[in-house]
Design goal:
The chain has 133 residues and is mainly alpha-helical. It is built from 4 helices and no strands. The protein is 78% helix and 0% strand.
Length: 133
């Protein structure tokens, strides 16, 4: 077998091309939102906001004003968090679907590379068998 006949399939990753070339604005936005909201920074930011909300409504507004705008059971805070979850969940699911699509493409690509490697190994084994006879 001549070197020119060997076709290398591993020179480019098709999942990278799919991920970066054909994304719509919505897909890019979903990936970015998932990247941001899936970080420790966002969790800490949300924790600080929650603490500030509770502190302001429980202490500062009670002591220095006419009263809290969202009293103890914090119904408005629950509404805000529920709205955040309702908006965030489908966005994260869209991003996960894109990741699953990339994984399927990458798996197919890996299968093709492995198939080609197996063919080449068989050819090499056959050449070695002939040489050793």
């Amino acid at each position: 077998m001549k070197k020119e006949e060997i076709k290398f399939k591993h020179l480019e990753d098709p999942a990278f091309k799919v991920h970066h070339s054909r994304r719509t604005f919505g897909q890019k936005a979903a990936d970015k939102v998932t990247e941001i909201t899936g970080s420790w920074g966002f969790i800490l930011f949300l924790f600080v906001i929650l603490l500030a909300w509770v502190a302001v409504n429980s202490y500062f507004l009670v002591k220095y004003s006419q009263g809290p705008f969202d009293p103890y059971p914090f119904v408005f805070l629950n509404l805000v968090l529920a709205c955040l979850a309702v908006i965030q969940a489908p966005i994260i699911l869209m991003s996960q679907n894109r990741e699953a699509q990339k994984d399927r493409i990458k798996n197919e690509y890996d299968y093709q590379v492995n198939k080609k490697a197996e063919e080449e190994i068989r050819e090499i084994k056959e050449l070695l068998r002939r040489k050793l006879k």
